[in-house]
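dumping this here before i forget
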Amino acid sequence: MELRDLAFFESVATRASYEEAAAEVGRTKPALTKAVRRLEQQIGAKLFDRTGRGKRLTPVGAILLEKARHLRQEAEAVSREVGEVARGEAGTLRIGSGTTIVNHVLPRACRMLTAVAPGVDIALTVGMSDVLQAHLRAGECDLVIAPVDPRAHSEFDARTIYRDEMVVAASPSHRLAKGGASLADLAGEKWVLPSRSVGTRAWLDRIFVQNGLPPPQARVETSSISALPEMVAELDLLTFVGRNSLGILTEIALPETTLSRSFALLTRRSGNLPPVATRFADILAALPTD
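structure:
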């Protein structure tokens, strides 16, 4: 049973004559007559009774008309919904990001996306770069925004979308926050830091080691530095955080420990992006990078 035959049957059933139905669907009367006959053969029952020059639905025809209308409406809904997904106007955007981008880039980008595609749902995974890249690799995220990492660039397609600087920070009441601190002074402090597998932690460790000092010792290891300024302050610790994410903390300015970093939009090289992810990538690319 073909949807086209059902559509022709519905038109015949709701119009006074075959001629009117043929004009409505843009087909000839014989084409509609054949469609009705095919349906009758498939069902094994008559769909119309003749009444003089007119026609009347049989009980079987009345049931089929109800089902044909339902199928047409479902087909139209499927076409509409799939079309919205294909145009990036609906579907689920699966994106992974760290807190820096969540705080400073995603709110504006998501607002721009939902303004043009209100049917889009957003599944956001927040984590450190290594964890997010694993999600991307496993196909659990369509897009990941993470600090630029040459190792990631060898595996994923990458496009720079944001820049900032990482700095050492502490509570304004910390003894080193008053100025004049040296790298050696920092070496004797306890820190809030990400795991050593994270690129920014590895960079900070190298700076200390290259200057003949032990790497910073983490009293607290976390997957979200930007989310813990209160803990840094309350425990009187140091941390290494984006300048745009200082919050209640203050920068301990040292040229040696200032890291300029860029964030890249990462996508898998194999496979096509879902249309909604492509639309969002274009929005991110159009935003200012700092």
